[in-house]
Design brief:
single chain, Jelly Rolls, two-stranded antiparallel sheet, 9 strands, binds fe (ii) ion
Length: 238
């Protein structure tokens, strides 16, 4: 655990308590922080999302478009087997999809912001990358430091959440093929400098549990405001 000399924020206390109360050792998301399902979606289903990746040029590191709520619900339904087993086992059962976007990484390099090893400052939650097209080895891979999700961290500012000393070769790299899905806990360290210029087209979803131990309660004003701001989808229909 990394306590250093910093004071825990209220949210970080909740994350710490939550980690103490997790017991299931047979869950890939718990053990590694990363779970890959190859060839999960059929090609025709992936093709129905190509409309989100229509750009005049690719002279940027990253661009995103909002996914429609209808499309997000379609995907969540098809992910029900994984959500109802591994994800509920890891996060708890009161789940919401709080982000749903189509993201393309373009042909510009970058070492800023999320293009550094980092965690998302949100405690345990699961991000899902769905590969709409094959991503080749000339594109930016998904980097993940295996097992880093199990390490409790505290931070007092943005720089504390960036880990520039972690080398690229220490991290697991995943180049998804069309229809592959990667699930990872954003409390673990992920990403690295983008020095590749090939395209990567993914749908990104974020799944969060709302409970006492996440400091996000869907009955509280704060929790409801967060859900409304993100147009979150309650996962009670799969
Ligand atoms: Fe991130």
């Amino acid at each position: 655990m990394e306590f250093k000399n910093k004071n825990l924020t209220k949210s970080q206390y909740f994350y710490f308590l939550r980690d103490l109360f997790f017991y299931n050792k047979n869950n890939n998301l718990f053990n590694k922080g990363l779970l890959i399902k190859n060839n999960y979606f059929e090609n025709s289903f992936m093709d129905s999302f190509s409309k989100y990746f229509d750009y005049d040029n690719f002279n940027f590191p990253t661009k995103r478009k909002n996914l429609s709520e209808t499309d997000a619900r379609k995907i969540l339904k098809k992910l029900s087997i994984v959500i109802n087993s591994e994800i509920k086992d890891y996060l708890g059962s009161n789940l919401y999809c709080t982000e749903y976007d189509a993201i393309i990484t373009g042909n510009q390099v970058s070492t800023d912001g999320s293009y550094q090893p980092h965690h998302d400052q949100r405690g345990r939650r699961v991000k899902i990358f769905i590969y709409v097209k094959d991503s080749k080895e000339d594109s930016h891979p998904l980097y993940y430091l295996i097992g880093s999700n199990r390490k409790f961290r505290k931070w007092s500012n943005y720089q504390d959440t960036r880990f520039k000393n972690i080398k690229e070769h220490q991290m697991h790299k995943f180049y998804g093929k069309k229809g592959d899905v990667a699930f990872f806990d954003t409390h673990g360290l992920h990403s690295h400098n983008k020095y590749k210029t090939g395209l990567r087209c993914i749908i990104k979803l974020v799944i969060e549990n709302f409970s006492f131990f996440n400091n996000l309660n869907d009955k509280s004003n704060k929790g409801q405001a967060y859900l409304k701001k993100n147009n979150a989808i309650k996962i009670d229909f799969i």
